[in-house]
């Protein structure tokens, strides 16, 4: 490793960092910090879970002889966050405590109700995850480039805030500040509502004939990808954030009803315009979703046919690099019953035409 690489891995965080909860998020925090050389200790109610996370390299199991950590990261399930934070503040009186729960207002309000001194507590939430949980799915780069929300209040000491921000930055997060109320309303719209809609849409597939499912393409896969998430975890999240989620669901249901009424009789006056306006509103909404590096810039899409044989995808990616084409995103789709797949590559609009021409010249088939 050269000096530049060593400097790039130099940690901002001051260890040791103690992680309570060794599942997906907790183990990923540990893996990322350990990669930076930060000392990490682990704790979990399940001996098997904490031992597995330690085996994967997320840290070592904390012992009674270990010194007070500089920072405690609570990564327990949402319905026990308040209990875990309260215990951590009491057990580690010299430590700053944060949590990575996806709901911020309910645990914060509960801690206030209990009269807990929250001077050393800073709520946070990395907007990252995977459809499946557990230490076995943990990744050191899980948080890279993802928003990391910090929810501090006016009483938060600067040094406490700095410790939490240092960990977020070391793990590659992009810092943003919100109040707990702002955070929960935001994630209710951009995370919790999509989960419910995706799950309900996927549920419609259960009674569908196999022949119908055989026609499924990228659109269905895109809109149902997160439907495989853990129902028990989402019961906790949705229950804790039910007020904004119900509000957004009611508005969504109203849009669905309006759309269905117009489509039921498209000959009625104004029906076609209502359908077109709702579809156009979708165009406007998707154009506001931030793209790479926090930019709302839209990318051009290139579809390349890839033979379903070993090494073909690697060859495509290698040749894109040789051509100097920066790939902004990549999606893969297999064609049922055929030995071929589709690679959908997102590139900047100004290089799309050249990218297609260069790939075709090298023998690739594009759509």
TrEMBL record:
Domain Prephenate/arogenate dehydrogenase: 15-293
The EC number(s) this enzyme carries: 1.3.1.12
Key word Cell cycle present: no
Keywords: Amino-acid biosynthesis, Aromatic amino acid biosynthesis, NAD, Oxidoreductase, Tyrosine biosynthesis
Top EC class of this enzyme: oxidoreductase
UniProt xrefs under NCBIfam families: PRK06545.2-3, PRK06545.2-4
PANTHER family the UniProt entry points to: PREPHENATE DEHYDROGENASE, PREPHENATE DEHYDROGENASE [NADP(+)]
Annotated protein name in UniProt: Prephenate dehydrogenase
Organism of derivation: Leucobacter edaphi
